[in-house]
Amino acid sequence: MRRKLGATSFAARHERNEGEDKHMNLITRQVYYFEDLEVGMEASFAKTVSEADIVAFAEVTGDKNPVHLDAAYAAKTIFKEPIAHGMLTAGYISAVFGMELPGPGAIYVSQTLNFRGPVKIGDRVVAKVRVMELYPAKRRARFESVCSVAGKPVLEGEAVLMVPSRPVATQAA
After folding, report:
1. Domain residue extents for the chain
2. Domain 7-162 is of which CATH architecture?
3. Which of 67, 112, 60 is nearest to 88 (CA)?
4. pTM to 2 decimal places
5. DSSP letters along 119-161, please?
6. In 3-state terms, what secondary structure has residue 39?
7. Distance in angstroms (rounded) separating the CA atoms of residues 163 and 141
8. CA distance 111 to 78
C-alpha cells in the first residue's frame, strides 16, 4: 500500500581520482512525512551479498571474525562456509528506512534483531518493512522488519523511527 507523493531531489557527491572534477549526481527519492504514513504500508530493498561486501563491512567495522573471512576456518563451523555479518544483513533494513519508507529524514529510535539463519555469499537478501503502529504525539512509527533469503526469514525484528512532519508552507509577502 504505497501512495503516490511528490518526489524530493538529493545531491550525492562521489569521490573521483585526484585531478578530476568533482561531480554531483542528482537522485530523486520519494519522501514520506509522518502525515503520509498508514498502518500496513510496506517497502523493500534487495541485495545479493558478495564477498567484497563482507570484506568491506569487516574493514569498516573492525569485525574480522574468521567465520566471515576465512573459508578454511568457516569450513570447520556449523555453517561449512563463510557467512555474512549479521549486522550487514541488518543494514539492509536501514537502507529501506533511509531511502524508501519513510525515506530521507527518518531517524532510528530503536531496533530489535532476531537472527534466524545465516546469509552466505551469493544469497539474495530481501529486506522488507511494514508500518505496524503510528504515534502522532511524538511523530514516531513502529515497523515490523524482516530479511529473507529464498523466501525464508533470516532476520526478524521491530523498529521505532522518528518521522519528520510535512513542512508548513510559507507565503511570500
Report:
1. 7-162
2. Roll (3.10)
3. 60
4. 0.81
5. -BTT-EEEEEEEEEEEEGGGTEEEEEEEEEETTEEEEEEEEEE
6. coil
7. 7
8. 27
